[in-house]
């Protein structure tokens, strides 16, 4: 027996530790290298139980490896920072109200995606959360793109945790009662256990939940307080991946990258009307010409949900075909695995647009066989955001 | 005769036929299994060929044929309920029975003490 997926053999001594590293070890985590960090892939209960617990109660994730960036306008006017950021993202940042958060994308001149991120209006500055593997490049990109009008800071003194699941609100309420008044994509400042935190009602699981930015010195303290609650279980990267896949959410580097455009990736919803053709601030971001043309004319391929018909998981990299003999290639799987909550294999990938309609039967090559797969609507689970 | 491989399979050899499964250590490392694919009865394999596949939520792993031989029986129970491999890996959750091309070939594999030393 040999696992095809296993920790790298690179020396773990070169890996960065988050402020919660010792806590993970004390909880029995199995640690793996991820984006230059040593991170928990699972704890003693394992991926399956961690996944199901998050959907049934509450899961706590260490996402301190992600980048937290502040953009502060030199003029003191938040609108100046918003307009400056709009030069790099096809997102309406200007209309984002104070205390609100929005999903965004950094695009390149070819219309490809450099990274996906969360953007918050914090009143006198913008607060971004970006992917760990991209954070240094994103920081340099921001400095170059809007350093003339804004001070850009990559924070190195804050941890980030996520508390996700149907019991997340009740758990967090015990530390800060006002959390109940927050709605999906609201962001607020709060004292948790006398520590100043930034809380957003968002996440990466499809569940209601929160992401909490904590000063490093207090990260273990606040996290332990949450873990003391009987409904809360620590959750590793393994279940984080299966949860986001069931929720139909993209993983940067797998489902989107510089070779995919927002329209190919079915992320049109992330580009508001004001930035599209005919909008008051149409275009003006890298790759606008191609991306706006794709809104009008479509693309030759599209990201879709995929449901394998049997029990065999279809993993990322599997080739997709229109026919059961594997003679007509039409795309490939970008993320795939087993969905514990839907109790069947689930996947997503790119297929030629002619085969992208929901209900279309196609075939995936797995170990030399061509398994039937149905193109399916995303997400695979009902999202339970508190809107 | 109970034998083990460095790839974490166990073999119980009786009359030239080896019942093959994966060890408790391997099952623990894999985590909860959600899918098992077994070879067809009558298939022949060389030592080191991929003979079966096990999948957890996160990953797929190959189970290698520990010796040269022919599959004479498979355990459908673990296909119907992969979690059996986690609950009873060295008992009810055997994978297949292999008629050994050379009945003496198992002699060179690890004994239980040597395997235990290998996995610590």
UniProtKB/TrEMBL annotation, chain B:
The gene is gcvH. HAMAP family: GcvH. Pfam families: GCV_H. The glycine cleavage system is composed of four proteins: P, T, L and H. The glycine cleavage system catalyzes the degradation of glycine. The H protein shuttles the methylamine group of glycine from the P protein to the T protein. The modification N6-lipoyllysine is found at residue 58. Residues 17-99 form the Lipoyl-binding domain. Coiled coil: none annotated. SUPFAM superfamilies: Single hybrid motif. GO terms for cellular component: cytoplasm; glycine cleavage complex. This is Glycine cleavage system H protein. InterPro entries: 2-oxoA_DH_lipoyl-BS, Biotin_lipoyl, GCV_H, GCV_H/Fam206, GCV_H_sub, Single_hybrid_motif. Its cofactor is (R)-lipoate. PANTHER family: GLYCINE CLEAVAGE SYSTEM H PROTEIN, GLYCINE CLEAVAGE SYSTEM H PROTEIN-RELATED. GO terms for biological process: glycine decarboxylation via glycine cleavage system; protein lipoylation. Binds 1 lipoyl cofactor covalently. Belongs to the GcvH family. Keywords: Lipoyl. It comes from Rhizobium fredii.
């Amino acid at each position: 027996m040999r696992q095809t997926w296993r920790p790298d053999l690179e020396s773990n001594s070169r890996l960065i530790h988050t402020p919660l590293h010792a806590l993970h070890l004390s909880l029995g985590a199995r640690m793996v290298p991820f984006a230059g960090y040593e991170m928990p892939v699972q704890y003693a209960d394992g991926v399956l139980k961690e996944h199901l617990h998050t959907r049934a109660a509450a899961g706590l994730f260490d996402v301190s490896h992600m980048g937290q960036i502040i953009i502060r306008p030199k003029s003191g006017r938040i609108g100046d920072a918003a307009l400056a950021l709009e030069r790099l993202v096809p997102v309406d940042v200007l209309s984002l109200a104070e205390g609100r958060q929005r999903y965004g994308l950094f695009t390149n001149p070819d219309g490809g995606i450099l990274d996906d991120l969360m953007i918050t209006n914090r009143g006198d500055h913008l607060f971004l959360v970006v992917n760990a593997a991209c954070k240094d490049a994103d920081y340099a990109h921001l400095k170059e793109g809007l350093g003339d009008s804004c001070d850009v800071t990559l924070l190195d003194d804050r941890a980030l945790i996520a508390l996700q699941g149907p019991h997340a609100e009740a758990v967090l309420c015990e530390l800060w009662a006002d959390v109940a008044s927050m709605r999906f994509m609201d962001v607020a400042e709060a004292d948790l256990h006398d520590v100043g935190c930034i809380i957003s009602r968002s996440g990466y699981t499809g569940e209601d939940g929160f992401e909490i930015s904590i000063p490093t010195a207090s990260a273990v303290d606040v996290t332990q307080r949450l873990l003391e609650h009987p409904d809360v279980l620590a959750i590793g990267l393994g279940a984080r991946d299966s949860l986001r896949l069931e929720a139909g959410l993209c993983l940067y580097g797998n489902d989107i990258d510089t070779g995919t455009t927002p329209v190919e990736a079915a992320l049109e919803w992330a580009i508001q009307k004001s930035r599209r053709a005919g909008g008051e601030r149409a275009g003006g971001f890298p790759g606008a010409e191609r991306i706006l043309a794709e809104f009008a004319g479509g693309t030759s391929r599209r990201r879709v949900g995929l449901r394998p018909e049997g029990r065999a998981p279809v993993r990322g990299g599997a080739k997709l075909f229109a026919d059961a003999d594997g003679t007509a290639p039409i795309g490939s799987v970008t993320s795939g695995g087993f969905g514990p909550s839907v109790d069947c294999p689930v996947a997503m990938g790119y297929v030629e647009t002619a085969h992208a309609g929901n209900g279309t039967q196609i075939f995936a090559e797995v170990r030399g066989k061509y398994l039937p797969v149905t193109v399916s609507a995303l997400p695979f689970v009902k999202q339970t955001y508190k809107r | 005769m109970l034998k083990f491989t460095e790839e974490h399979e166990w073999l119980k050899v009786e009359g030239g036929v080896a019942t093959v499964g994966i060890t408790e250590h391997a099952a623990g490392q894999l985590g909860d299994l959600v899918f098992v694919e077994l070879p067809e009865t009558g298939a022949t394999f060389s030592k080191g060929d991929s003979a079966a596949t096990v999948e957890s939520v996160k990953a797929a792993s190959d189970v290698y044929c520990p010796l040269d031989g022919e599959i004479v029986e498979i355990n459908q129970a673990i296909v119907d309920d992969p979690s059996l491999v986690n609950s009873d890996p060295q008992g009810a959750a055997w994978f297949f029975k292999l008629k050994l091309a050379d009945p003496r070939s198992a002699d060179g594999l690890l004994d239980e003490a040597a395997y235990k030393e290998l996995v610590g």
